Amino acid sequence: MQVTTLMLRSPDEVDEYRMEFLQHHKTQLRHDDALVPYWQQFTSALESYDGDLGFGCIELHSSVIDMLGPALATCITSLSLHDVGRGWIDLAIGVIGANSSLKYLSCSANPSRMERAFDLFSSVADHPTLSDLTIHKICSDGAEGYSLFVLAKICLLDGDSGSSKAYRLNFSSNSMTSNGATHIADAITTNSSILKELDLTNNHLTDSDAQAIGQALRNNTTLERLCMQDNELTKVGVAAIHDAVISPGCTFQAILNSEHMVSIDLPYAIGKLCPDFRRKYCYNNELKKQRKICYIFASRHGYGTNYQLLCEELGDLSTKLLPFGMKRVFDCSYKYYAGRVGKLIWCSEEQHVPPLSIAHEILRSWEVTKQEY
């Protein structure tokens, strides 16, 4: 703790500091009154800190929380509370109410405090900038985990606060089960303008939940990411979500016209059946559309239907010529460039001509406007 205090008081800039003890994360360092003087020094130094702060595997006693509260009402933009004891929610609510600069809050592996959950979500809703919220591994009971999500939905998504915040919500590892209820699907259906990411990883959601979520996705074209790994989904549930974004019989043109840009993470044991259109390198809509086309090829490869699809889109003759044309273009542009009399001349690596964009030619043949691709 003394080292932490010295670092905070250092003239060097520190963007992030994590106060994590016992890094194996299996044993919490319990409170000891002998540490109080060091906590006082730490909180005093913290008042001038404006980076990201995380506490992990150390009990935050009520006396410590009383000291931390005023110190955290500064310019920190991110706060993580991992395995810090029952006082976590009181500290979180206090910081949210006092710090107008907070943008990210993560609470994980802390005891459930359902009696104060409504107060927590209400304070998040009223905050001007806090929109990235992680509530991870708080509930061990399925009904309690689902109730936690319902409270968040009521406070953050269903209210009419007039705020323009777009939420990124993580409710992973809360043993959540819906028992056929539809609040998760409703959150996706009716909050397309303010819900950008939803992480439901490692819960107990079933195929019936997946089917409801799939129907909800049909009416939501602004959700950027949905995480559903490590739930109790079979291939039926996975297909229900997958087909909502890309139906089995869709054509390339239908894919390009689709406004869905969602990245969906599904159980890896079943297979990565949904495309991830928002990973790195997908900086714009053109790249996302190209990935959609590649995904259609890949997903139909195992069924042997790519040739039939291309015939329908391009015509039988064009389809037969396409492989030869693509091979020639890539062969000629990799290690050679055209000489003065049209001969192919070997060139060094820095002189390589980039391959022509087959995707561009196909898009032109479909009369897609420049603005669209």
From TrEMBL:
SMART domains: LRR_RI. The keyword Repeat applies. The keyword Repeat applies. It holds the Pfam family LRR_6. Keywords: Leucine-rich repeat, Repeat. It comes from the Eukaryota. Belongs to the PPP1R37 family. This is Uncharacterized protein. It comes from Thalassiosira oceanica (Marine diatom).
